[in-house]
Amino acid sequence: MTSSYIGIGDIAIEDIFKWVTSKPKIVIASTIVCRFMDDIVSSEFEQEREHIVPLLECYMREYDISKEEAIQELQKGVTEAWKNINEECLKPIKVPVMVLMRIVNMARFIDVMYKDEDCYTHAKEKMKECIKLCLSIRCQ
Description:
Blueprint: H1 14-21, H2 25-49, H3 55-63, H4 67-90, H5 97-113, H6 125-139
Helix pairs in contact: 2-4, 2-5, 3-4
């Protein structure tokens, strides 16, 4: 997220980088959206690769709950994170809206990528169609 500010010109002053690296609530919330949504849809694939233990698996072990219950808890976390993102966008803060929109758009992108399946790792037809749609709207 921080590196996305490099290309926005004069708005990306040192204060913006200090702000984003101070871990404001909106940044934490957007990373939760990313991590939780990714893990909900890709935990089985991650287990097959055996190089890391997915968050979902850790949560199940720590709280001694089923996979379905763990997924529900992570989905609650995603919902809470979206509430925090919305709250941070609604109250006045010191950073320009353009800076906040980078964070919001990243969370939106993650929501599309991991809504029902891992479209990042397995970019099949669904992701291709999303990209085509975005490009066709942008070009009109």
